Structures are given as C-alpha cells and as structure tokens.
Amino acid sequence: MDFVSPKGNKLAWSGISIRAASDANLNSPVALDIVMLKDEASLNMVSGLSAAKWFATRAELAKTFPQSLTYRSIEVTPGQTLRLPASEFGSVRVTAAMIFADYLTPGEHRVRVDQMQGDVLVQLGAQAFTVVPQAAN
Predict the structure, then answer these.
(1) How far is residue 30's CA from residue 128's CA, in Å, rounded to a whole number?
(2) Over 70: is that where the pLDDT of 3 sits?
(3) Which of 3, 95, 100, 104 could bridge to 54 as Cys pair (CB 3.0-4.6 Å)?
C-alpha cells in the first residue's frame, strides 16, 4: 500500500525578528515580502528574481501560482524593530521560503530562509540586508 506524504518541509522558525538600522534603506522605509513557495515550479520561477523584479511581478505570480505561492508583506521604517511569531506563517509545508527587501540601491536583495531554525533575525542596513538564525530565547 502506498501512502502519500505531504511535499515540502515544515518551517522550524520560532519567529522572525526584524531590526532596521537608523539609516536603513538610505533613511527610507523598507518593504519586505516573506514568500512561501510550495512546489518546484513556483520555486524555479521566483528563486532567480531580484527584489525589484519580485515586487514588480508579485501580483501576476500570485495569480499564476495561486495554490503554491503565498507572501506576507511588511513595511519597516528606519530604527524600527518588530517580531512576527511563527503562528503568522501557519504550519504549511513549503519547498522554499524567501525574503525580498525593496531597497533603493541596486542588488538582488533576496535571501532563502526555509532551512533556518529558531528565531530568524532580519537586519536591515543602509544599502542591504542580512538574515541570520539565532537561538530561540
């Protein structure tokens, strides 16, 4: 007898913390999208996009992949700190999760985060951002 197991992995995040430097995005708000991709087709389409291309095409991509692509949008101002608990993202299984940041400076401004565990820390700097896992407190 064959059993069908759900595809993808459950996220091992305890939450996402976001810290914006006082000069983040050249002293401008930063739009962030946390994107959940539930199959290889959506991953292949999105993984090579720069943040600028993601933000320009996200509505169309969501229509093209309505069952396999979801995202959560947040805007963070310079100096702001916030935390999103894991419950904000549900218990869905994903093939991949990515964060895109809409910076004024050129660059890819995307990070894949589905393999991170504990608290995921997003640090928004003047011209770019970093994402690092931290031990849950």
Answers:
(1) 10
(2) no
(3) 100
